Predict the structure.
Amino acid sequence: MNPAPLIAVSTSVTVDKYPERAYVNAAYLNAVQQAGGVPVPLPPQLEPAARDAILKHVRGVLLTGGGDVDPSRFGEARHPTTAEVSGARDTLEIDLTQWAIARRVPLLAVCRGLQVLNVALGGSLYQDISSEPGSPFDHSQAGRQGKARNIPTHPVKVRDGSRLAGILGALEVDVNSFHHQAIKRLGRGLADVAWAPDSIIEGVEVSDAGQFVVGVQWHPEELVGDDRAAFNLFAALVSRARETG
Ligand SMILES: [Mn+2]
């Protein structure tokens, strides 16, 4: 059996704050390790040579949650609620997405990660769901649930026969929700395979069956303790990464 595979975990960066930092929620590191992988945080401050030295050993990619993608990346002006935009992080993660797809390295994209994946493939985003006409649904549970990040607040339906359904082992899951943006126009080669009750896209995958590229709009890393479906996402990423080792 191949050894525990290295999984690159993209990090957040401070925006307009001193001192500048790179950081990642420990829940991502815990989830990858629980699934048998070796998480390697990959901050945007790395020089290209340093990044390449790490990527040589990387067998899987986890795109994490965080601030908003710069809307100029999909040809839109900035909405007043769009926040925590880091051009350096956008560049790193879009490059990382294209690198993974070109090399058929398995990729799991969480929350902002799903949005980055979509934009990297030419898609666009709703910059603020609650500013859209007729959007009744609050996808930001922070205001309602305080700091309880592991409490599910809305259901998601998953397309039967999709890769995501196979991984989760379920066609309906209850998820946590910490996003004010969502997919508007799908990127090239992406299929939407999961939805909230208001039709907001909550899951995507690359249609090419040979390629492991899966994105979810919720935060499974916060749920792995008592939610088998959430754990399965990380287990599938690590298992696929081990095969490509
Ligand atoms: Mn949601």
The chain has one domain: 6-244. Residues 139, 154, 177, 179, 196, 202, 217-218 surround manganese (II) ion (CB under 6 Å). The two ends are 10 Å apart (CA to CA).
